Amino acid sequence: MTDRAARRGVPKRVRVTVAVVAALAAVGFLVAALAGAFDDDAPRVPAVPMPGGAASSAPADDDETDEPGDATPTPEPLPSRSTATAADVEVVASGLDVPWGVAALPGGDLLVSLRDSARLVRVAPDGERTRVDGPGADELRETTVPDGEGGLLGVAVAGTFATDGYVYVYRTGEEDNAIVRGVLEGTTLGRLETVLDGIPKARTHDGGALAFGPDGRLYAGTGDATEPANAQDLDSLAGKILRLEPDGSVPADNPLPGSPVWTSGHRNVQGLGWDEDGRMYASELGQDAFDELNEIVAGASYGWPDIEGTGGEAEGFVDPLVTWSTDEASPSGIAVTRDGVYVAALRGQRVWRVDLGTLVRGEPATPTVLLDGVGRVRNVVALPDGHLLVVTGSTDGRGDPADDDDRLLRVRLQVTDVP
């Protein structure tokens, strides 16, 4: 991925995957035809989406013309290579019991999910905490079944929150994982409606990432639910990244018609993020050897359980951008800023930084440590003011919590461009 065309189109490392996606789309079209789906109401097989979720159905020469003087557009400047340090770390809130997901609300408040108590807490910029109540909060407590890594997990709000008030959460129930939503007014959550259910659950590899992309669609990261074969089974919602309309319907341009599956071959996805150009990234918990940071391309498979770490291209899988040994990372949430991808590490007990300028150029990236010594790190969120919010996770049953754990930390970044 060294030339501009490769960067703005399908990266070299995933070109083989495009062929796989095209084949899947062709199979979907044939099945639809056999079912008599050529009437006006039948869904159309979409074009293969490009990285970031943008689909193109125009011919390859759409921008070409026979007119004289047609000029090649000036390429956009690439992000600078840079380094970053944690210039200042401030404790926003402490004493949280197993925090998991975080969503930034308009006005600066944060909405935090507590995994085991199945509660949502609203945290003001000055650290004041208010418990979310109401019929939706009651339903969450009554229907969520915390067990191992399961419980009340990811939380997300769309860019339309100021007008619709919807809060989306990923929760583990008696039979499965589900994504539900309710309207939040102040600290009152209205009755819940199900966006998607039937996601396989397990005490480990339970997934839980939830985020809205720049395309306005809702994305969810799921685990393989301790059944590795689920990850390659396109009929299973386990071991996948899913893409939905906010109401739970399937977008017409998903790779497989009628399916929420966006990508497959994942072991346990707990972090999702996008850069300013729409490239999508996800963190991946490995088994014994390698954890991963991946660039996500619609319809691609990321190898699990056939491949852990690099080496998948020969099998038609996508190789990761970066790998860590499992004792260095066990990555959970991620945040993508203008300068880097910041990765929360549970077992590694630190925040890793991967330089975005290096990634966009297709050059090998070496992760650096931004912050350590704060215990297990569950999540990291880019705040609108340019700071990072770091969520510790030492009360999750696998850490050694301090008296004031768990904490929300606001980190001021000092970013320096390098040649």
Automatic annotation (TrEMBL):
Domain Glucose/Sorbosone dehydrogenase residues, every copy: 96-398
Acidic residues compositional bias, start-end: 60-69
Gene3D superfamilies associated with the record: TolB, C-terminal domain
Cross-referenced SUPFAM superfamilies: Soluble quinoprotein glucose dehydrogenase
Annotated region (Disordered), positions in chain: 46-84
InterPro entries, A to Z: 6-blade_b-propeller_TolB-like, Glc/Sorbosone_DH, Quinoprot_gluc/sorb_DH_b-prop
Organism superkingdom: Bacteria
Name of this chain's protein: Glucose/arabinose dehydrogenase
